[in-house]
Write a structure and sequence with these properties.
heterodimer, A: 228 residues, mainly alpha, 10 helices, B: 307 residues, 2 domains, 59% helix, Protein YIPF (chain A), membrane (chain A), Yip1_dom (chain A), Yip1/4-like (chain A), transmembrane (chain A)
Chain lengths: 228, 307
């Protein structure tokens, strides 16, 4: 008894908590089953597959439009995804196939080489930007760099169409103009998104590798020569 | 406040170590008499007698980078901050270092004058990457231009050469400084690092010295042989003299034979890199009298020297 009194003394101060004196606490602990009111926004497990795919496609398409008209919005940065870059990378690598690379290895880049250049290049640029003190996160930067390859992929498709018509100097001139324009567009679009996250005195140090990256991809697009 | 005193005393030890490494450092002055700015200790004081003279810093570097300039490891090598300390440069600093590598003046040691105990890895890495691509692309262009009139020539991008260029240039830019630094440290022997350079500084000076090859490789597209040889001689002269001016003060304390041999080895390796790149990437198949349908590209392939 004395021990119980001793034990209850630390809780003696609780006796003047109002809830234990005035308001009787009572209730029901059972959880109502089948309440779907709070689950509608969060659980996507029950929706039809078409809905799921369309939502992701809409997000990807939305970002494509942001690349086409680059303004300093943070939508691309906030909801990053890597579907778009993967799609673009595969498309570009497929379009770069079918060149003069069949038997000898003096031809264009192989499928794996394109993949390695794009993904390793993006990772190295992201690491570079973070090492220089940037505040952008790793995957956001990968997302931006990947999406901004889109103009160059479009240029590659245009180049292949132009090459169907012949590969003389005229077609080369057209391809040169198209690739240069899309290279400038890519660089401009990606720096519009990335430049804000860098300290002001290091912006050029971060932009230069991006420039080099798109230059190399543009070079691969421009020097694609069809098999004869 | 006690944390600040701890930081200050840690920096005092770092500064003392720096001084023993390099008595000629212009960035830290421990004498109490000629301090003009007390930037770090302003307003706090504490119990420290250390006054750091930062007034000679005219490059606009932050104080923190000066204080931590000699500190190679800001953490363990598994932390991100460790590597971040190698990228602690601004745009103007990088441009200034590039300028210093292109215009070597006798008496201006690149490491002492431009690096000022803040070696970075940004410059060497991106200069090497740019050089890899510029050499491969210019080589491809020059081969194309030289073969333009040849009707049986079929243009090929030769993309595998990028891989080869990358391997060669990165090996040169990393293995040679490792070897040179190891050799110099071994020769220093008992008098450790009086005038010796750290590993990072060696890598840094080698990386920046490769910068002159980038515009040279672009200009090599011009198909005239005498222009090419003139360009390569000028580039080797400039780049080699940057290296020689940097390493001569370290080496001259050694015996005459070793000093001359070391410097000669530096120059020879540099020359080999330049000539090797020229011959592999820019080879013109000018001596193919009657080209068979597939001979010209094959000729270019077969005529290259194995590395």
């Amino acid at each position: 008894m004395a021990a119980a009194d001793e034990a209850s003394r630390p809780f003696a101060g609780l006796s003047d908590v109002s809830i234990s004196e005035d308001i009787p606490v009572e209730g029901d602990i059972s959880v109502p089953m089948g309440s779907s009111r709070r689950d509608d926004e969060f659980s996507t497990l029950d929706e039809p597959v078409k809905e799921t795919i369309l939502r992701d496609l809409r997000a990807v398409g939305n970002k494509f439009i942001h690349v086409l008209y680059p303004k300093r919005s943070s939508a691309l940065l906030r909801d990053w995804d890597l579907w778009g870059p993967l799609l673009l990378c595969v498309t570009l690598a497929l379009l770069l196939q079918g060149g003069s690379a069949d038997s000898d290895d003096q031809g264009g880049p192989q499928f794996a080489e394109v993949f390695v250049i794009i993904w390793f290049g993006s990772i190295i640029i992201t690491l570079n930007s973070k090492l220089l003190g940037g505040t952008i996160s790793f995957f956001q930067s990968l997302c931006v760099l990947g999406y901004c390859i889109m103009p160059l992929t479009v240029a590659m498709a245009v180049c292949r169409i132009v090459l169907v018509g012949g590969s003389g100097p005229v077609s080369f001139g057209v391809r040169l103009v198209v690739v240069t324009a899309s290279f400038g567009w890519s660089t401009f679009a990606s720096t519009a998104f990335l430049a804000d996250s860098q300290p002001a005195n290091r912006k050029a140090l971060v932009v230069y590798p991006v420039f080099l990256f798109y230059f190399v991809i543009g070079w691969m697009v421009l020097t694609f020569s069809p098999a004869q | 406040d006690s944390i600040f005193i701890d930081v200050l005393s840690a920096e005092f030890e770092e500064a003392a170590e720096l001084l023993s490494v390099d008595p000629g450092a212009s960035t830290l002055s421990m004498s109490a008499s000629n301090t003009t700015t007390v930037a770090a200790g302003e307003g706090r004081g504490g119990g420290e007698e250390v006054k750091l003279d930062l007034s000679e810093d005219e490059e606009g570097q932050e104080e923190s980078s000066e204080l931590l300039g000699g500190q190679k490891a800001a953490g363990g090598f598994w932390t991100f901050e460790y590597y971040q300390s190698f990228f602690n440069v601004d745009t103007v600093q990088v441009l200034d270092r590039v300028k210093g590598s292109v215009m070597p003046l006798p008496g201006r040691n690149f490491i002492k004058h431009h690096l000022r105990s803040n070696p970075d890895l940004y410059g060497p890495f991106w200069i090497c990457v740019t050089l890899v691509f510029s050499v491969a692309i210019s080589g491809n262009l020059s081969v194309f231009l030289s073969q333009m009139g040849n009707p049986s020539f079929h243009y090929r991008p030769q993309f595998h050469r990028v891989t080869i260029a990358a391997v060669v240039i990165f090996l040169y830019a990393w293995l040679v400084p490792i070897g040179l630094w190891g050799f110099l440290t071994w020769r220093q022997g008992a008098e450790r690092q009086i005038g010796g350079y750290s590993f990072l500084e060696t890598v840094c000076v080698y990386g920046y010295s490769l910068f002159i090859y980038i515009p040279t490789s672009v200009l090599w597209i011009i198909p005239l042989e005498w222009v090419r040889w003139t360009l390569i001689l000028i580039a080797m002269l400039i780049s080699g003299s940057v290296l020689v001016l940097t390493f001569w003060p370290v080496v001259r304390d050694d015996t005459k034979v070793m000093a001359v041999a070391t410097v000669a080895m530096i120059v020879v390796l540099h020359t080999l890199l330049a000539i090797g790149c020229k011959m592999y990437f820019f080879q013109i198949a000018v001596h193919s009298p009657t080209p068979a349908p597939t001979a010209p590209p094959a000729h270019i392939t077969l005529a290259t020297q194995p590395h």
